[in-house]
Predict the structure of Serine hydrolase family protein.
Amino acid sequence: MQILTLPGLYSSGPGHWQTRWEAELPNVKRVEQQDWDNPVKDVWVATLSAAVNAVPDEVVLVAHSMGCALTAWWLASDKPGVVDKSKVRAAFLVAPPNVGRENFPAPTFNPMPQIRFPFPVVVVASSDDPWCDLPIAQAWAKSWGAVLHLIGAKGHINGDSGLGSWKQGQDWLNTLITKTAKPVQ
């Protein structure tokens, strides 16, 4: 199984939990976008498709911020032969942003798809996220069929949140992976 991290705008810096997970945990690899500063939905979706298709095994998506919007748009995409959703075992989505807010820096991601995910999904949201009010994150989690974890007042749940390697997030991810494990035959 391969864990693919999907950072948001500007990627995830050295103090971000995603970057730490990539360095500390086995089978974790970042999906590298061509332009982290000016995301274009169709380009990011194509890059994610290529990354998923390149993995010979099952995939777990671990997204932060715009990576959450990317995941939803990737699933909403209907390009047979390009988008192979069957390889994805689960998704762990942290701090989805309000892509519909005024002056959002990535307008091609608006509106956020509100579709039921075809695999288990967890959403983690903060009560004081400057990029998304909690009721919006809760509504998206419900429409996606996600289990919602509220982390308290942790801002945008990024490098500035002081989470370090974020053990609680790792535990939630491990629980998600364990619950979706296929029996050994």
User: Anything to note?
Assistant: The longest helix spans residues 41-54.
